[in-house]
Design goal:
The complex is a heterodimer of chains A (about 270) and B (about 70). Chain A has about 270 residues and is an alpha/beta fold. In chain A, about 40% of the residues lie in helices and about 20% in strands. The radius of gyration of chain A is 21 Å and the shape is globular. In chain B, strand 3 and strand 4 form a beta hairpin. Classes of the chains: A alpha/beta (about 270), B mainly beta (about 70). Strand 4 of chain A pairs antiparallel with strand 5 of chain B.
Chain lengths: ~270, ~70
């Protein structure tokens, strides 16, 4: 008899073996202490970070970095705010030196209104970064052809959006996400951006995605630490559901209680 | 003197400074950041051989929160 109460434990991404399938952001928390507690309680093993201009003699950024280092989990630097392949490549190279990792969450924004990624510049940057030894985690839309182009240039990981960054709208187009999963069984797929509620995480994981990446849904909750715990369980529940295999949907009702021996039914004629 | 832009602010500097000397001149600490000159990354190994030119744009970036 199996006694599996956790989703099929370890998995591999970017050359690392992990247990948690939740990747968590480090921005927008009410305080550094709250961020630290939320990340710890989430049990996430990958945290996203960024680079920004630092004034001379400033210690703020380094205080943040000290907290993250103390957590002793994997760091995934992003290229947020970049609008061209050139900017993203330079930011990735700078991040590799500062954070001492070849991982990069590649973000090249193509539209300032909905922060939609620029697929052309993203593919161009991904190709160059992979040749330069980076493990690229590309933030992309749910477009199947863009996913194919990213795979063609060597991406082993794809991170299609659920919906626009910070919108909390959940999965706008589950059928597109499902198609990407079906088309690329060998790639690691992470739903990145747009997740708002724990049920969105469950839905993404039930589609067979390998993980989720979220930030605002936790950091902007009324109680970020409690929400981090909620997402931890939601991610596990969705994965367990996927592994267990859901029942076939039926068009009509079908009683679950046996019909044989149903009381109060009598045949007179 | 030359004029350069450091993190978006115009600064006047002596001529022929390399990146290592620039960091000292601007009172930066010695580590915890990375540098780009004219949107091209300059690694720590290249600080001494990279001479700042008039009109250069320099970005000095450090870790912050990110999603």
């Amino acid at each position: 008899m199996t006694n599996q109460t956790h989703a099929d434990d370890s998995w591999e991404i970017g050359g690392k073996t992990l247990k948690s399938r939740m990747l968590i952001g480090s921005a927008l928390y009410p305080s550094p202490a709250n961020m630290e507690d939320a990340i710890k309680e989430s049990e996430a093993q990958i945290v996203t970070v960024a680079l920004r201009r630092q004034a001379a003699g400033e210690g703020g950024g380094n205080n943040f970095w000290d907290i993250i280092k103390e957590l002793n989990i994997h760091v995934l630097p992003n290229t947020a705010g970049c609008h061209s392949a050139k900017e993203a490549i330079t930011t990735a190279q700078m991040a590799r030196e500062v954070f001492d990792t070849n991982w990069v969450k590649l973000e090249v924004i193509g539209d300032q209104y909905n922060l939609q990624p620029d697929p052309f510049e993203t593919v161009k940057a991904a190709e160059i970064l992979i040749k330069d030894g980076f493990e690229v985690f590309p933030y992309t839309t749910d477009d199947l052809v863009v996913a194919k182009r990213l795979a063609d240039v060597g991406c082993k990981i794809l991170m299609p959006w659920g919906s626009p960054i910070g919108s909390g709208q959940g999965l706008m187009n589950p059928s597109n996400l499902k198609a990407i999963r079906k088309q690329f069984p060998e790639l690691k797929l992470i739903v990145d951006a747009g997740i708002g509620k724990p049920s969105d995480a469950v839905e993404a994981m039930q589609l067979g995605y390998d993980g989720i990446l979220l930030n605002s849904a936790i950091a902007l909750a009324q109680d970020p630490v409690k929400m981090a715990i909620a997402f931890k369980y939601a991610t596990q529940a969705g994965r367990l559901g996927y592994e267990a295999g859901t029942m076939q949907e039926r068009e009509f009702a079908s009683p679950s209680t046996p019909t044989v021996g149903t009381p109060f039914w009598h045949q007179f004629s | 003197m030359i004029k350069v832009s450091v993190n978006g602010e115009v600064k006047e500097l002596d001529e022929n400074l390399n990146i290592k000397q620039l960091i000292t001149a601007l009172n930066y600490k010695t580590k915890g950041f990375a540098i780009a000159v004219n949107t091209t990354f300059v690694s720590i190994k290249s600080y001494e051989e990279t001479i700042i030119q008039d009109g250069d744009t320099i970005d000095i970036l450090a870790p912050v929160q990110g999603g």
